[in-house]
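seq:
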Amino acid sequence: MVPPALSTQEVRVIGYHFPPFVNQSGTGFTHALIKTLNDSQDEYHFSFHLTSPARRYQDLSSGRGDVIFFEMPEWGWTEKDIQIEPTREILTGGEVYVALNKPGRNQSYFDDITSKRIAAFLSYHYGFAGFDPDRRGLEKNFDIYLTTKHTTNIRIMLAGRVDVTVVTEAFLHKYLTENPELKSRIMVSDKRDQTYSLKAFTRKGSPVTVEWLERFLNKIKKSGRLQALATEHDIEKILTY
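struct:
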């Protein structure tokens, strides 16, 4: 009889810094979901491999990755014609604009984002830019400052170095929960830069199929574990699976 560890297939999950799903500290909802996957079955062993937003397409298409969680086809996958299979929607949500809360400033401040100095995350896809993440194009067409940390973008906005930044609602909720003293200092847009429909993708030829992932998600949804994981990461309100 072959020991379970030797008969288990390896599934490589790729991910990039995208809080609260993948945090720079090596934690997040994706990591928790992978742990649950490994603790709940012995057919596959899921391992996490950090990539970058720009590199994720090549990693998945080349086989260096098998699965990526919490993506949208509109984020470059369709135009690159990469053969992927998506699950049904797991999470919703979106991104909002954030600016300093100043006397006399109201929601009309967000009417023309493109005329403002913007802080954004490098290689992310934004609605105001037509979902084009190309750095050269962004810097040519917008007054934009690109970083690799949402917290940096908020800090430079608070310091007045930029007019507005764009962050995920889930990240902003958690950030303000941890920093309640900042709530009165910022103004959040009522309108979204974009609305999410986040799914998991498998590459063609992946050891694990979309059907298998959905069966597993159905199982942990029925047991209450999926809701519990979302609650632990403060994203239960955007869980749609």
